Input
Amino acid sequence: MDDFLVIDHVTKTFGAQRAVDDVSLAVSPGEAFSLLGPSGCGKTTLLRMIAGFERPDRGRILVAGQDITELPPEQRPVNTVFQNYALFPHLNVWENVAFGLRMGRRPREEIRSGVDRMLELVRLAEHARKRPAQLSGGQRQRVAIARALVNRPQVLLLDEPLAALDLKLRQHMLMELNTIHEQVGTTFIYVTHDQGEAMSLSNRIAVMNAGKVEQIDSPEHLYETPRSSFVATFIGDANFFTGKAVEMQHEGYVRVMIEGLGSPLVLSNGVVSSNQMLRLMVRPEKISLTLKRPLSGERVNAFPGVVEDSSYFGSHTRYRIRAGEHLITAQLQRSRFSGGEISPAHGTSVWMSFHPDEGRIVRLEDAA
Amino acid sequence: MKRSWIPSLITLGVVLFLFAPLVVLVANSFNASRFGGEWEGFTLNWYEKLWAAGEVWESLWITLKIAVSASLAAMVLGTLAAYALHRFRSWLQNVHHTLITLPLVMPDILMGISLLALFVLTGIETGLLTIWIAHVTFCLSFVTMVVLGRLQDFDFTLIDAARDLGATRAMAVKKVLLPLLLPGVLAGGLLAFTLSIDDYVITFFVSGPGTTTLPLRVASMMRTSRSLPMINALSTLLIASTFVLAVLSSRLQRRA
Ligand SMILES: Nc1ncnc2c1ncn2[C@@H]1O[C@H](COP(=O)(O)OP(=O)(O)OP(=O)(O)O)[C@@H](O)[C@H]1O
Ligand SMILES: [Mg+2]
Output
């Protein structure tokens, strides 16, 4: 994997605040890469530094081996789709898309064919003469994408491009973006605070928190093996337990003593030593509920509990189960209760169980 | 809902109040009576006299020269000032803002006197140049305020977008900022133009021999009753052209 866009130890401070704090990452050519994180974590700032609107205090930015840290925005081989689209209101759709090529003083014929082809790609050919104000949100969005892509950038930056759209349109545009990415093969850097968007669009995701990158991984890896509890909660839901490693087992498993719950056996990930305090994470949908204690023996972790409440979401049902001082969330795909034919009602005593491979050790950052 | 005749009555009152003097003036410009007390028949006599009064046309020419050049200068300077005021925040800009708004609230007579004092002190002879400087001074404030209002609505990510697409800073201003500001600049310029045309007080102080602008000329004509009907005719022509300008200006503002 050769690195195409490289962010090398980049830091940016505004006054006393570190908006981007020593971030390093490398993106391969043609990759769809997401920057994911909560509001204010520095995603836009990082994007603006790649585009050239902000200068890093420290660090370098390289595209295809060329150091672009000092280049003004107009000389960078990147183009941006802005969050509010920033279409030129005094120009029609065609002229908006042609803007970049005109600035690059391309020959007239090339401009015409380039713009027409791009409008075809985003299916806006019949709206070419309209002003941005006459378009719907989704159409404006596509103009913004066409206006950026027509310049054949080496990297396309997208700053929360779907944030202004309603849910249905967002899902639709997400698929369109996927299609466009497949067709043009340009490297996409996609900024969002929506984990669903990031997961469905990208090959890899950098999860950011307070100016720092917490973890860079594929969507599957982020979900299955989050390295910190921040990542675990930001991508999906999670149950956390704090405990002590009590018994190392040679096949790479560890038994964890959890106050008030027992000693489940989980994958150790090779990072645990005996008597170490650690944090265990189990996803709600990995926990199964039964009325009787499961019979699968040693290898399944089972705990008794009492159902406190349940909420029905159509595709799944969510239960909150009390076990001593722990309140555990479990999620069932079917409304049918796997142990019997009923859903456990409030106050039912149930057994929760999960397989050792479904428990994850995450970094212990806030627990003692 | 019951219809009330009160709003219509008020409207009628306002219209009468505003336009009755103009109607009288326009009517009198076609009245054969010299003093306009009563209608003595239709005549174009006063328009013919006006046509022959060379000094009036000379004054109009001076006035137009000053109004056009002063409002053009104010458009350029006012736009620059508004841009600086909008983009940069410092104590110096706060002072700048206060200075720019000062002519809007300062009594004309004070401005006239202070400008004259300045010209006397610096030894600049009063004449066309001093009138032009004075007019640019107060026109500038109006243009700046109008353009500043436009700038406050302007989305500066458009400039980022232009540069992202390969435009240099100057190109982005030329291709994006200026076209979008232009209606505001023109509206401000038009306002400045009308203000310059009919300024009397300030011009009175800073004009010199041979630079009698139209308002000054009209005022001096008022002293002799002989030329009163001529003033009516002149005013009628001015009303007509003002009307055209007003329609033009509101068109511009609607497009902006
Ligand atoms: N020009 C600026 N001046 C001062 N502070 C800034 C500036 N731009 C960003 N910040 C601060 O830097 C931090 C990161 O901002 P940034 O816009 O990068 O966040 P973000 O991750 O894009 O958030 P969001 O999801 O809300 O868009 C924020 O706390 C913000 O207040
Ligand atoms: Mg942002």
